[in-house]
TrEMBL record:
UniProt record similarity statement: Belongs to the RuvA family.
Name of the protein this chain belongs to: Holliday junction branch migration complex subunit RuvA
HAMAP family: DNA_HJ_migration_RuvA (MF_00031)
Pfam annotation, one family: RuvA_N
Localisation per UniProt entry: Cytoplasm
GO CC annotation, single: Holliday junction helicase complex
Amino acid sequence: MYDYLKGMVDYIGPEYIVVENGGIGYQVVTPNPFVFSNQLKKEIQIYLYQYVREDLIALYGFQTRQEKALFMKLLGVTGIGPKGALAILASGQVDQVVQAIEQEDESFLVKFPGVGKKTARQMILDLKGKLEHIIPDAFPSLFHEPSERIETKSTELDEAILALKALGYSDKEVQKVAKQLGAETFTTEQYIKKALQMMLR
């Protein structure tokens, strides 16, 4: 089992990045590849989870151990596969997701792409009370402090649209927010962040 990979970011796409190490390019699927935009051609350390089934072997990568731990927990929930778990992590902060599960906030959880009421209830049943180890330092004050915002990165709106579609949002949903954001000038990460905020309202 891999724990992490250090290497140079060689490519960034809407679903994955390529990290080069020792002359080999590793395709690593991440919740939001564009958070690595300002690290293109630079060395990073990314935490890995190797997913294996009969017809698929894939590497999933995360910026923090907390993201990786939550991803692994989400995979254990009936009705959530790797793509669904990635969409949840891309759309929400780790502490936001943990807080929603601990507070049994189904209305928040169903805002994630691919998560209906049944899956939201299953997440709560399977995970409530089992996530404290993911963010132990923040857990006592989790329900009283605002979530920390992700720092924005760079690129543009068309890449943001590709990323949103890769997360499972429909063309109709993406176009709706794209029209509202089209008049503004942001980096790709800012577009994605603002679009996700609008979709989660």
